[in-house]
Amino acid sequence: MKKTLLAAAVVGAFSMTAHAQSSVTLYGLIDAGVAYTSNSTTTAGASGSKNFRATSGLVNGSRWGLKGAEDLGGGNKAIFVLENGFSIANGSSLQNNRMFGRQAFVGLQNDKYGSVTIGRQYDSVVDYLAPLTLNGSSFGGTIASHPYDNDNTNNSFRVNNSVKYSSANYNGLTFGGLYGFSNKAGDFANNRAYSAGVNYANGPLTVGAAYLERQGNPGANNTAGAVDTTANNGDSVFNASKQRVWGIGGNYAFGPATVGLVWTHTQLQGLTSALYNSQTTSFNNDGLRFDNIEVNGRYMLTPAVSLAAAYTYTMAKEDSTGQKPKFHTVTLQADYRLSKRTDVYLTGSYQHISDNEGTGLQAGIGAAGGMSSTSSQTVVGTGIRHRF
């Protein structure tokens, strides 16, 4: 009897050790609410109307995922993430109906040197610069996106076939880079992507910078490449022969307040179409540039109540017409935490565009459900977020 109990204790000890060395976590976020949108249309040139609708992901996209790690010894781990994006309104998968459309990768991590991962992953703009914007955080999110999410700070697309390095944290300094393969024989540059970024956090100050480049060939569409450009259903907003994004920004916290300033520049070459807010706009192999300057701030009234705001000035330029459209976007949000995992919010955004005659560009707020049929658009919504 004593031997049996001893054997059971030994087996139990080994089981506990094995469990401690390997872990799998189920996690997620659900964002559901209702919203009002003015001047909404999904057809270019058509008249719009006001729209009251149920929403999913008005601030942050609803998702669930699995992440895991196995201790390999010597400070090394095997890691993976599988993350699904979905609509809480109807239960469907997002990101072109992918099972794990938000993220899907596996790799190795070292405590001293960082990690190398392979799969469908976020680029360096999303990793190192976007968190300094309001739309890249839970204090603004999708509704605070820069026009057409032209700089991908709202993570409109992920990079397939990618190999990614992410450094360890060196006293607040983190950096990394990514390369997404085209996977096309004989046409190595047809739909590939690469990026690099750096972020430094020290006390109240956080600064970051990043660069992203995509190369494609709209005339010979490679949908198996780094970024899905499938017509009417792809990840990317822009179908262009080249997209370059670079930017820099910083946040500074003092007491319960945080203020931020971010600048990004986007260049598009060989642009044939843009798909945004369920509307496709055609361009004639054109060139298009965007400069975004965002000023943002948030304030914790209490540990449970926060206020946030951002103003983004965007100046675009279309090569074929020489026109320089200007966007003004203002976003406000009030949030109340019911618990550590559940909060309710009231949010709104207003955008106005000018000097856009003949360019095809329109006003359109992220997650609005449609572009504006006039020079302005307003979205106001309320909802609940639950994290698990």
Low-confidence stretches: 1-19
The SSE order reads HEEEEEEHEEEEEEEEEEEEE
Structural class: mainly beta
Shape: globular
Q: Give the beta-strand count.
A: 19
Based on the model shown, name its key terms:
388 residues, mainly beta, 16-stranded antiparallel beta barrel, 2 helices, 55% strand
Question: How does this structure look, described?
Answer:
- With 388 residues, the chain is mainly beta.
- The protein has helices at 2-21, 124-129, and strands at 22-41, 49-56, 63-73, 76-85, 103-110, 114-121, 159-166, 173-180, 192-202, 205-215, 238-239, 242-254, 257-276, 279-300, 305-318, 326-337, 342-354, 371-372, 376-387.
- The chain has a 16-stranded antiparallel beta barrel.
- The model is unreliable at 1-19 (pLDDT under 50).
Quick summary of this structure?
With 388 residues, the chain is mainly β. The chain has helices spanning 2-21, 124-129; strands at residues 22-41, 49-56, 63-73, 76-85, 103-110, 114-121, 159-166, 173-180, 192-202, 205-215, 238-239, 242-254, 257-276, 279-300, 305-318, 326-337, 342-354, 371-372, 376-387.
